[in-house]
Amino acid sequence: MSTNRHAIEPEELMAYLDGELPAGQATEALSHLELCPECQILAADFRSVSQQLMAWEVESPEAGMRSEINAALGERIEKRKAAKVAWLRWDRVMTNRRVWAGALAIVCVAVGLKLALSSHYWNEDRSTAYPSMASMEQYLMPADAEIAMARSAAPEAISNDAKILVLGWHGYETAIEGRNGFVCVVERSWTSPFNSAQFWNPKVRGPICFNPAAARSILPLTIKRTEMVLAGMSKAQMIENIKAGFDNKELQTPEPGAMCYMMSRTGYLNDAVGHFVPHLMFYFPPTDKSSWGADLPDSPVTLNPQFQGGPEPITEFVVPVGKWSDGTAAPAM
């Protein structure tokens, strides 16, 4: 019986990173990765291996090697620059477990890596790579680049007339006034769940475009979290301030119809998932996920963990879409 305490198995994580999980499983994988530092480390290891393998030069298979492995490595030599990380998939290159084990050993020796797809990754106690806030400079970006990234969250027909906010030393500032009620912004890592290992990751850039209802009721949370971070508050202080904000009506639960676009191919959500997939998000007061059929087999809807277990009385659903904001097709999910 499996003792894995994680929502996804290693081979499912490989398939997710390869863009080949069904939409429902992919969003479930993202939800787990958002909160699991062990899986984030494993995913980062897989990505690192991928980059090294793409640059790996193989002269020729050694004599005496099993014919099945020779064939597999031959195919790898021919396609190494164009192929994805085929060695990570059970259903590619390797046709049985004995061949998989042999080829994996060869790859590990060749690139000098000692990855173990075992319970070691799931059970080892690892601390977060981002235990505290980095210098403010690391979270900032040039205004023109931030404007372009913010607009990339939604199709041009929406974002071209949207209000654009950019992050400055004292919080978010209006860079461009809008005309359609939408507000586009690039969120930083502190909009993650408070228990996320990525909460202080300075590389995070989350382009998001709120519709008018969400701009009035959800965007104020992003602005308030940012103000508290810049004020030097601890997580505990931020949580208490958010609770007080809802109690005194400074903050409000989602308006009916509140939603946002996250369809940018240039964002970076965290170290494990990169820019993820284009998707829409819908906000509600506390709601049972069964009302949307979220997280059921083959359902495209998943419950986003952003506000789960946090001080905000908000339920958020994620629905992947098939195109990026520029109209190009997204990877098959």
List the helices and strands and how they pair.
Layout: H1 10-17, H2 23-35, H3 37-54, H4 67-79, H5 97-111, H6 119-123, H7 143-151, H8 156-159, E1 163-168, E2 171-176, E3 183-187, E4 206-210, H9 212-217, H10 219-230, H11 235-247, E5 259-262, E6 279-284, E7 302-303, E8 315-320
Parallel strand pairs: 1-3
Antiparallel strand pairs: 1-2, 3-4, 4-5, 5-6, 6-8, 7-8
Helix pairs in contact: 4-5
Label this structure with key terms:
single chain; 333 residues; alpha+beta; eight-stranded mixed β-sheet; 11 helices
Any overview of this molecule?
With 333 residues, this protein is of the alpha+beta class. It folds into 2 domains: 10-123, no CATH class; 136-320, no CATH class. It is 35% helix and 12% strand. The chain is globular.
Radius of gyration: 22 Å
User: Which bin fits the share of residues in helices?
Assistant: 25-40%
| Run of helices and strands | HHHHHHHHEEEEHHHEEEE
The average pLDDT score comes to 79
Q: What is the overall shape?
A: globular
- The strand order across the widest sheet is 2-1-3-4-5-6-8-7
The number of distinct helices, counting runs of at least 4 residues, comes to 11
Main sheet properties: 8 strands, mixed
Q: Total strand count, please?
A: 8
Amino-to-carboxy terminus distance? 29 Å
Which structural class do you get from the secondary structure elements? alpha+beta
Number of domains: 2
Low-confidence stretches: 58-65, 81-96, 105-127
Strand share of the residues? 5-15%
